[in-house]
């Protein structure tokens, strides 16, 4: 059941123990959003498998405890935060759950007790609206966590909307901290293994030109998301980085502004290819990921062709 932001307090208040659950490799948007909801409405914060590097940095700054791989059955309700596909929840067995999210996949909606999902640039913006509509005033840490989530999901406001800037201004006012403090919360130095992986991904990259667009693919067995993002930073319009993990292939996709503006939809492409290879995936138009069976090479070939087809059609 879809609910309005103002109904969240009433709906979640019907359950006595609530877990706010972040996706696998929880990022600052997930951690900041779950933390603010938990502080406002009561409950616990959990995450699946692990926390991202920047998510962990934020945890320290705002002082939130996150239970890794909590037992969903220990709670009356699980509120899944910043997550749109089951794949991102690993082995967690969901029964009674709700959803607060900003992605565009609807896989978790039909079975949710209630949900709020709309395509904003971050889940944090939705959470801020939920707090306001329910008469909750966040403290300093809760507001800081939300702003850091926004900074992270908007690429430091490079992809921000006018609405996102409004929310950011309100969070700075209510939290009473400096913007610089929020920025430094996620400015953690990149560790050497990630830098090695990214450099390897760059040296192995194959590049195809389609009109004025460049599509890069690369094979790597860790940090696929960082690698795809780095290839876009280096000049690719679209980048796919694939890694083999046991029998499963993980592919991360990123697109630059021009390709996204030309109508490329990586969430759609990821979902479609994943399903064809017995997997699952999704995300956003310009940033998506999937897992599927098979080898990296044919999957990357499929990705490249799908992106090329889309760019030729619209570009
Ligand atoms: Mn997010």
What does this entry show, briefly?
The protein has twelve helices and twelve strands. 43% of the residues lie in helices and 20% in strands.
Main attributes of the structure:
315 residues; Diaminopimelate Epimerase, Chain A, domain 1; six-stranded mixed beta sheet; 12 strands; 43% helix; 20% strand; binds manganese (II) ion
Major sheet size, sense and barrel closure: 6 strands, parallel
Task: Tell me the number of structural domains.
Answer: 2
> What is the subunit arrangement here?
single chain
Task: Tell me the helix content.
Answer: 40-55%
What sort of overall outline do the alpha carbons produce when their principal axes are compared?
A: globular
Number of E strands = 12
CATH A-level architecture of the largest domain: Alpha-Beta Complex
């Amino acid at each position: 059941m879809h609910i309005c932001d103002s109904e969240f307090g009433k709906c979640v208040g019907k359950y006595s123990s609530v877990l706010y659950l972040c996706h696998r490799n929880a990022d600052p948007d997930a951690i900041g959003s779950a933390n603010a909801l938990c502080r406002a409405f009561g409950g616990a914060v959990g995450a699946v498998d692990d926390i991202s590097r920047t998510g962990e940095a934020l945890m320290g700054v705002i002082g939130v405890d996150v239970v890794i791989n909590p037992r969903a059955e220990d709670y009356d309700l699980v509120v899944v935060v910043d997550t749109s596909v089951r794949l991102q929840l690993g082995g967690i067995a969901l029964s009674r759950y709700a959803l607060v999210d900003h992605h565009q996949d609807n896989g978790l909606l039909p079975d949710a007790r209630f949900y709020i999902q709309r395509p904003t640039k971050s889940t944090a913006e939705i959470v801020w609206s939920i707090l306001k509509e329910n008469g909750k005033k966040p403290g300093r840490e809760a507001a800081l966590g939300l702003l850091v989530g926004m900074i992270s999901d908007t690429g430091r406001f490079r992809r921000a909307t006018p609405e996102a800037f409004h929310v950011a201004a309100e969070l700075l006012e209510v939290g009473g901290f400096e913007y610089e403090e929020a920025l430094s919360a996620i400015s953690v130095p990149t560790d050497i293994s990630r830098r090695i992986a990214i450099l390897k991904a760059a040296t192995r990259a194959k590049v195809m030109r389609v009109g004025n667009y460049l599509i890069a693919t690369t094979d790597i067995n860790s940090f696929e998301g960082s690698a795809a993002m780095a290839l876009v930073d280096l000049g690719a319009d679209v980048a796919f980085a694939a890694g083999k993990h046991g029998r499963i292939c993980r592919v991360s996709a990123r697109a630059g502004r021009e390709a996204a503006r030309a109508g490329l939809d990586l969430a759609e492409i990821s979902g479609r290819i994943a399903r064809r290879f017995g997997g699952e995936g999704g995300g956003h138009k310009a940033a998506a990921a999937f897992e599927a069976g098979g080898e990296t090479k044919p999957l990357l070939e499929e990705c490249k062709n799908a992106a090329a087809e889309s760019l030729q059609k619209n570009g």
